[in-house]
Amino acid sequence: METRMVMRREQEEQSSQMSHSMQLSSQIKKKTFTSSDEEPSYSDFYPIIPADLMSVKEILNMDDLPRHRTWEILKETQAADEEYHRDKWTRFGNEVEKVEIDVIRNQRVLRTHVDRLALRKQAKKKASAHMKYLELLSQKAPDFTIPLRAHMVWEGMTVKLTCTIQGCPPPKVTWYKDGQLLRMSDQPWNYSLQQKFGLNSLEIRRCSPDDAGEYKVVARSPLGEAMTFGTLVVNSYQGAVAGSEHSQTPALTLEPEAQFGIAFPPTWVKEGNSLTLQCTFTSALLPFQQDVSWFRDGIQLHQSSNVEITTVDSKTSITLKAAHKEHEGVYTVRLRTWDDFQEHSAFVYVQDASAAVSGGPASPLDVQVSDVNKDYVFLTWQPPSADGASHVLGYYVEKCDVSQGEWVRCNVHTQKMCHYPVFGLKEGTLYQFRVRAVNQAGASRPSKATEPVLTADPLEHTRTTVVNVDIGWTITITKDELEGHVKAPFPPTDVHACEVSDTYVVLSWTEPEPRGREPLTFYVERSLAGNSSWELASLDMVVNSPRFPVFDLVKGKQYCFRVRSINKYGVSDPSEPSEPISLGKPQAVPASPHSVMAISDTDTSVLLQWKEPKDKDDILGYYLYYNETGKQDWNTVNNKPFTKTRFIVHGLKTQGEYVFRVKSVSRAGNSSYSDQSQAILVKSAIHVPSAPSAIAMLLCTGSEMVLGWKAPARNGGAHVRGYYLDQREKGMKTWREVNVKPAKERQFKVCNLSAGHFYQFRVYAANMAGVGKPSEASEAFLCEKWTMPEPGCPYDLELREVRKSSLVLLWAAPLYEGSSPVTGYFLEISEGDQSDDWTALNEKPVSDTHYKVSGLQAGQTYRLRVSAVNEAGVGCASLPTEPVTAQTQPGTKNVEIGVDNDGFIFLSYQADKMNDTSEFLWSKNYTEAIDAGRAQAETKKNGSVLTFKDASEEDLGLYTVKMSDNSTLSSSYDFTAEDLERLKELSWQVRNPLIALKSGWQVEVSEKGGVRLWLETESLSDAAELRLIFNDREISSTPMSCSSTELILVFMTSHYESKTAVSVLMNILEAGGKLRLWRKDEEQVCEEAERSSELREEKEHTSANVHCNACLQHRKINFDKAKGLVEILFEQLSREDEGSYTAQLRDGRAKNQFTLVFVDQKFRQTLALANEKLRDIKRKAGPYFQDFLSWSVNEDCELIMKCKVTNTKKDTSLKWFKEGVAVSQVVYEQSSGVSTLTIPQVTKKEAGSYRAVVSDGRGEDVSTLELLDDEYDKLLQQLSKQCAMSASPLRIQSTAEGFKLYCSFKYYINYLKTSWYFKEKRIDQGTRIKPGSSMQKVWIEIVNPTENDKGKYILEMFDGTETHKRYLDLSGQAFADALLDYQRLKQAAVAEKNRAKVTKGLPDVVAIMEGKSLCLTCYIDGDPAPQIFWLRNDKELIDPNLYTVTNEQKCSTIDIHKVRLEDSGKYSILVRNKFGSEAACVTVSVYRHGEKPPANAVEMG
Question: Does a cis peptide bond (omega within 30 degrees of 0) precede residue 791?
Answer without folding.
Answer: no
